Amino acid sequence: MSATAEIIVAVFILIGVFLSLVSSFGVMRLPDAYTRNHAASKSTTLGVMSTLLGTLLFFYFYEGIIHSRILLGIILIFVTAPVAGHIISRAAYNSGVELSERTVQDDLKDTKNIPK
Amino acid sequence: MIEMMLSTALVLFAIAIAIALYRIIRGPSIPDRVVALDMIVVNLISGIAVISVLLKTKAFLEVILILGILAFISTIALSKFIERGVIIERKRNR
């Protein structure tokens, strides 16, 4: 493994670490359940995809093989993480978690108390 | 040099998990806690990938897939429980 390959792998993994830290600080500091969900679902997804891409490149440079399990993990997280974020945010809205006090508009308010 | 960078990455993932634990303890509503648990699992996946690079082994690669599937299924089940009160519904007319 050459030094250039090591630098490429380390850059991808450090980008992933940076995005995960940014999303965790967003989860700590944002005022609302929905904004925290926004921070957690998007930035963490891109961070873990970048880290897994660095792992895939490491095993490609180290053994000469592209492992299909890491590739399948990247595709799985890219497909399922936004769906999970959407569904948990919809459950929060339907179960009555209040919005932040700085909210200026709530377009879904009319659909909230429809009897089923 | 790359070992030092990977160890730093592991420490920073641990800090991210600790901040998500703060949100689980402090969080005012249940969806906050579910989102933070999902974030913990995703950071754990990244940590396992970094550990498998650090140990130069490919024995941990199934763990990535299985943790991804488990995080998705548990988040769906918990959000369905929050929204409707049941996870697996009964049939109406049988």
From TrEMBL, chain A:
Its main location: membrane. It is found in: Membrane. It comes from the Bacteria. The chain crosses the membrane at residues 7-26, 46-63, 70-93. It is a multi-pass membrane protein. Keywords: Antiport, Membrane, Transmembrane, Transmembrane helix, Transport. One of its GO terms (cellular component) is membrane. The keyword Ion transport does not apply. It holds the Pfam family PhaG_MnhG_YufB. One of its GO terms (molecular function) is sodium:proton antiporter activity. Belongs to the CPA3 antiporters (TC 2.A.63) subunit G family. This is Na+/H+ antiporter subunit G.
UniProtKB/TrEMBL annotation, chain B:
The keyword Magnesium does not apply. GO terms for molecular function: sodium:proton antiporter activity. It is found in: Cell membrane. It is a multi-pass membrane protein. The chain crosses the membrane at residues 6-25, 34-54, 60-82. InterPro entries: MrpF/PhaF-like. GO terms for cellular component: plasma membrane. The keyword Isomerase does not apply. Keywords: Antiport, Cell membrane, Ion transport, Membrane, Transmembrane, Transmembrane helix, Transport. Pfam families: MrpF_PhaF. NCBIfam families: PRK12600.1. Belongs to the CPA3 antiporters (TC 2.A.63) subunit F family. PANTHER family: NA(+)/H(+) ANTIPORTER SUBUNIT F1 (PTHR34702), NA(+)_H(+) ANTIPORTER SUBUNIT F (PTHR34702:SF1). This is Na(+)/H(+) antiporter subunit F1.
